[in-house]
Specification:
Blueprint (H helix, E strand, L loop, with lengths): L10 E8 L4 E4 L9 E3 L2 E3 L7 E5 L3 E11 L2 H6 L2 H6 L5 E11 L6 E2 L11 E4 L2 H10 L12 E7 L2 E9 H5 L3 E4 L6 H14 L3 E6 L18 E2 L13 H8 L6 H20 L6 E5 L2 E5 L5 E7 L2 E2 L7 H9 L1 H4 L11 H8 L17 H6 L1 H12 L1 H7 L11 H10 L4 E5 L9 H18 L8 E5 L8 E5 L2 E6 L1 H8 L5 E7 L7 H4 L4 E4 L5 H10 L5 H4 L9 E6 L2 E9 L14
Parallel strand pairs: 12-23, 12-24, 13-19, 13-20, 14-19, 20-23
Antiparallel strand pairs: 1-2, 1-9, 2-7, 3-4, 5-6, 5-9, 6-7, 7-8, 10-11, 10-26, 15-16, 16-17, 17-18, 21-22, 24-25, 25-26
Helix pairs in contact: 7-10, 10-12, 15-16
Length: 587
């Protein structure tokens, strides 16, 4: 970065008014506003959107011209002839973006603790000077030379100025790319992914429409895509019990407790099957498990057709196994044989205790069985639905090579940069997409909590994020449940090395809690008032003057704002080499 940004050949005027929100500049001559070339660099004069530097007493200031006008008297004299022969004295309104030390311009102050004085000189800002600022945003001074950067685009009002940004500044506090359809979101996502590939970083893309399938072609950078229902599935045992409840939607009074008991029983049966022949569990015959109660007493658990029998059976051996393997049974995952769930539900429709012998379960309760019929039907419909079978692999083994979790773990441990999880063939029925995306993000969340990403951080890209983030599930049988794994990632995973980058055309549909955790916004054209307000409320670094440009941005143009960016930057995102499949079909 140039040590002296105040080149007198770049002088354009003096400050003649100072307010807390902006300053005004007086141009001694309209000639100073014209563009000119200086040492091969074309410098814009007094154009709206041009960057300027202001020389103060202790600090220098970087600003952007927002308005230009002529005094009333000179406006009345304006004509084609006078404009070419007579000098005018325009004034301009400048937004102060940041301040810097006069003798060490790289030391910037995000807050405006001082303002320029009346009479301070204003100069055109050279592209080299401002380009150095972009690269240093969000990076500690000692890391600036080695911090990876992404060349995102060029300034909207000065195509010669390249905008290179630190990857840490873009993703370090999570990132949101927003804008209406056709604004350029998909191209921006592709450009960021290309930058990460150049920097040898890792990214996982949740792709709901197959837009980013062009990345799959290069197997030197991209892992084999995990396209759900096609060549990958998310095994049901990796779902949490709460995810199963969302899929099955039991009513709260009878069905929900019975479903919990059936799941617990099947988890215990899985433990019995996996722990035979030790001192605690033995299997004297095909339908019996013997449980050690004391050194001299053993009691039996009876099974039938891959279910545990309960009616009239002793309670104590069941509870004994439950107490010994409590952590496994109460764990979040669904490690049991789901094909037996409907049969086990029938076995659970019993009285809690035998009135003649309180050590045993009671007999069949026909009222409970009647109330659970609709739940049993939903379980059977889920398991026998071919679409859900493709998604959750009800008939497949957990260690199948095409299981999604195995693919994610292989990518994390490997050397490739990109993993695309394709949702393009997943059904929209029964909110399968939302539940599946939430389950995948929950798995990554648990990996992050185990500190798997601290040595090699990963960015999770979520396209069409409004489809997935913090969705609620509710119907006539089921209380409202939040699918909030993405929200948890935004709130707690920055310190664990898992970063979120969401792309959406409807920021108003993103929960406020998630938006408030986003540190970087790349905002393309926004027209809807609620969308603009959502961004304004979430992004403290943007003032109303900057946000007023949002409705008129062209395709590919964006405003970059964020915690690590002391000033908003208006830029044109460069075309990526690997383009997304987002073109509008022609009539």
């Amino acid at each position: 970065m140039s040590s002296n940004p105040f080149n007198h050949s770049h002088f354009i005027g003096y400050i003649n008014q100072v307010t807390p929100q902006y300053v005004k500049v007086h141009f001694p001559s309209s000639v100073l506003m014209k563009s000119f070339t200086f040492y091969g660099e074309e410098l814009k004069g007094g154009l709206v959107g041009s960057y300027v530097v202001i020389e103060g007493e202790k600090y220098g200031f970087l600003g952007k011209i927002l308005e230009l006008s002529l005094p009333e008297k000179e406006r009345l004299e304006l004509s084609e002839k006078s404009f070419n022969t007579k000098e005018f004295h325009p004034t301009g309104k400048i937004e102060i973006l940041l301040s810097f030390e006069l003798f060490e311009p790289s030391n910037i102050d995000k807050g405006l603790n001082s303002l320029p004085m009346i009479g301070a000189k204003v100069f055109i800002c050279s592209s080299e000077f401002i380009k150095g600022y972009f690269k240093g945003f969000g990076v500690k001074k000692e890391q600036q030379d080695k911090a990876p950067v992404i060349e995102l685009g060029r300034l909207t009002y000065d195509k010669s100025t390249i905008v290179e940004l630190s990857q840490q500044a873009i993703f370090g506090r999570h990132c949101a790319i927003v804008g209406t359809t056709g604004g350029g979101k998909s191209y921006t996502v592709s450009k960021l992914i290309e930058g990460m590939i150049e920097n040898k970083s890792k990214a996982i893309i949740i792709d709901p429409t197959g837009e980013y399938s062009n990345f799959d072609i290069n197997n030197e950078i991209a892992s084999k895509p995990l396209i759900l229902t096609n060549d990958a599935f998310f095994h049901y045992s990796n779902l949490t019990v709460s995810d199963l409840f969302v899929l099955l939607r039991p009513s709260g009074q009878v069905q929900s407790p019975k479903l919990m008991e059936a799941i617990k029983s099947l988890k215990i049966l899985r433990i019995l099957e996996n722990n035979i022949d030790n001192d605690f569990i033995t299997k004297p015959d095909e339908n019996t498990y013997s449980i050690k109660i004391t050194d001299v007493i053993r009691e039996e658990i009876k099974v039938s057709n891959n279910t545990i029998l309960k009616a009239g059976q002793l309670i104590r051996p069941f509870n004994r196994v439950y107490s010994k393997f409590l952590n496994q049974i109460e764990g979040l995952n669904s490690d049991f044989n789901i094909e037996s769930l409907s049969f086990q539900l029938v076995k659970e429709c019993i009285n809690d205790v035998d009135f003649n012998n309180h050590h045993k379960w009671g007999g069949i309760n026909n009222n409970h069985a009647t109330n659970c019929i609709s739940l049993i039907l939903r379980v059977n419909n889920l398991i026998n639905n071919p679409e859900f079978n493709k998604i959750f692999g009800f008939e497949k083994q957990k260690n199948d090579p095409s299981e999604l979790i195995n693919g994610i773990n292989e990518f994390i441990n490997g050397d490739l940069n990109i993993l695309r999880i394709g949702f393009e063939q997943v059904s929209f029925d029964f909110q399968a997409r939302e539940i599946l995306a939430n389950a995948v993000s929950k798995f990554l969340l648990e990996l992050a909590r185990d500190k798997r990403f601290q040595e090699s951080p990963i960015v999770l890209f979520v396209d069409e994020a409004h489809q997935f983030l913090n969705k609620k599930v509710k119907d006539e049988y089921f209380e409202t449940t939040d699918l909030s794994s993405f929200d948890s990632i935004a709130k707690e995973c920055r310190k664990y090395g898992l970063f979120l980058c969401i792309a959406t055309q409807m920021p108003r549909d993103i929960p406020n809690g998630t938006l408030s955790q986003i540190g970087t916004f790349i905002s393309h054209r926004l027209i809807n008032h609620q969308d603009k307000e959502a961004i304004a409320n979430a992004c403290s670094s943007a003032n109303r003057d900057t946000l007023s440009f949002l409705p008129v941005l062209g395709s590919g143009e964006a405003i970059l704002m964020g915690v690590d960016f002391p000033m908003p930057v208006m830029l044109k995102v460069e075309m990526p080499l690997i383009k997304p499949k987002s073109d509008t079909p022609l009539f």
